[in-house]
Amino acid sequence: MSDNEKRWFVLRTTYCRESQFMQFCKDRGIECFVPMHYALKKVRQNGKERQKRVIAPSIHNIVFVHESKEWIDEIVFSHQLDYLRYYYDKTSGAPMQVPDSQMKHFMAVANVQEEDTVFLPNLDITFKAGDKVRITKGTFEGIEGRVMRIKGQQRVIVSIPHLFAIATAYIPTAFMEKVEED
Q1: Which residue among 37, 59, 60, 173 is least packed, with the fewest CB closer than 10 Å?
Q2: pTM value?
C-alpha cells in the first residue's frame, strides 16, 4: 500500500484530548472514531451536587483515524498537535493499522449503547479456543467475532489485536452461525 491511500490508523492522545482531536478532524472532513458510552458525572448546580448523564470516551487517549499515512505523518511529526502520537504495534514496531473490515465490525459494536456491552482494554486476547461466528439476528446482526463466555454469559468478542477488545451483550446460540476461518 502506498502512503497516500486511506487506512485506519490508531493514534494516541495525551491528557484525554481525544475529543479535541475529533473536533480537529471534523473541521477538516477527516473520518475518525472514538468509542463512546454514557457515564454519570457529578455536577454542582445551585449549591447542590447531583449526577448528570453525559457521553464520554470509553477508552481514553485512543483515536482511530481513516486517512493516509502521509497526512498523519505530517500532523504527528510536524508537532502541529503536540498531544498526538502514533500507537505502535508491539510486535512489528510499525504504526498500528486496523483493516477496514475489522474496523467496521468494531465500530458497529462500539456504537450500540447497550448497558451490557463490555470493553476489555489492553488485553492481548487470542481466540484459538473460540469459534469464529457471525451474528444473524438482533441488535448486533452482521457482526463477526469470536465466541467467549464472560460473566457466565455467551458473548461475541470483536478485537483489535495488541490493543483491546469489546464484548457484545449476551447472544443466544440461535442468533449465530459459524464462519470459516480466513
Answers
A1: 173
A2: 0.69
What span, in angstroms and rounded, lies between the C-alpha atoms of 151 and 171?
13
Kindly list the distances between the CA atom of residue 59 and the CA atoms of 69, 102, 127, 163, in Å, as whole numbers in the listed order: 23, 18, 22, 11
Cα dist from 99 to 47, 76, 88, 90, 152, whole Å: 50, 21, 15, 17, 31
For 108-120, how does the pLDDT look when each residue is reduced to its tens digit (9 = 90+)?
888 776 666 666 5
CB 133 within 8 A of CB 105: no
The CA-based dihedral angle spanning residues 14, 18, 23, 26, taken in that order and rounded to the nearest 10 degrees:
120
Q: Which residues contact residue 112 at a Cβ distance below 8 angstroms, ignoring those fewer than 6 apart?
A: 139, 140
